[in-house]
Amino acid sequence: MLTEDDWKVWRDLRLAALTEAPYAFGSQLAQWQGDGDREERWRGRLAIAGSYNVVATLDGQPVGMASGVPTDQSGVVELISMYVAPAGRGRGVGDHLLRAVEQWARQVGAETLRLAVVEGNTNASALYLRNGFHDTGELGDLMPDSVRRERIMAKRLAA
Length: 159
Ligand SMILES: CC(C)(COP(=O)(O)OP(=O)(O)OC[C@H]1O[C@@H](n2cnc3c(N)ncnc32)[C@H](O)[C@@H]1OP(=O)(O)O)[C@@H](O)C(=O)NCCC(=O)NCCS
Description:
The protein has a single domain (4-156), classed as Gcn5-related N-acetyltransferase (GNAT) (Aminopeptidase, 3-Layer(aba) Sandwich), CATH 3.40.630. It contains 4 helices and 6 strands, in the order H-H-E-E-E-H-E-H-E-E. The protein has helices at 7-20, 39-46, 93-107, 122-130; strands at residues 52-58, 61-70, 76-84, 112-118, 134-142, 149-156. A hairpin with a 5-residue loop joins strand 2 and strand 3 (76-84). The two termini are 23 Å apart. Residues 21, 24, 82-84, 89-95, 117, 121, 123-124, 126-127 line the site of coenzyme A.
C-alpha cells in the first residue's frame, strides 16, 4: 500500500497510463500536465480519505497500479486507476492488482466492489469478468470524446 510519500512512483505510472492508454480513462493527460502536475496534487490524490493505492512491480520495476476508493453509497467501494504497462501485460499483473483491491475492500467491510469500464475495452472487461465481476447494466460517465460511455460492473463480496 502506498503513502503520500510514494507520489513520484504513482505520478510516473499515472502519466504513462494517460499517455499510452487515453482511451481507457475519464481523466485526460492535459489535466495532469503543466499547472496540473504539482507535488501537492499527487500527494492529495494518494491521500483521498479511506482510499487504498497499490503499485505492482515486476523484476523490481513498477509496472502496474490500482486504487480502491469509498463511494457515496454505504457498503460500496470502487476500483479506479487500474493500469498495467505494456511490458507487464498478459502476465497476471492485472489479476494481482484486482485481488489486492478486493482484499482491501473486504477488510474495510464493503459488500460490493464496483468499477467503470469504457465500452470496447475488451482486455479490461475480460479481466474483470474472469475475476467474478458482472455487468450491472448501469451506464457511467460519458468519455472525454463525447461518444463512448462507461459501463458499470460490480462484484458482490462474500462476508
Ligand atoms: C486491462 C489491463 C489492466 C489488463 O492487464 P493485464 O495484467 O495484462 O491483464 P491480463 O494478463 O489479464 O490480460 C488481459 C488481456 O490482455 C490481453 N493480453 C495478453 N497479453 C497481452 C500483451 N502482452 N499485450 C497486450 N495485451 C495482452 C489478452 O487479451 C488478455 O486476456 P486473456 O488473458 O483472456 O487472453 C491492461 O491491459 C491495461 O492497463 N490496459 C490499459 C488501461 C486500461 O484499460 N485500464 C483499465 C481501465 S477500466
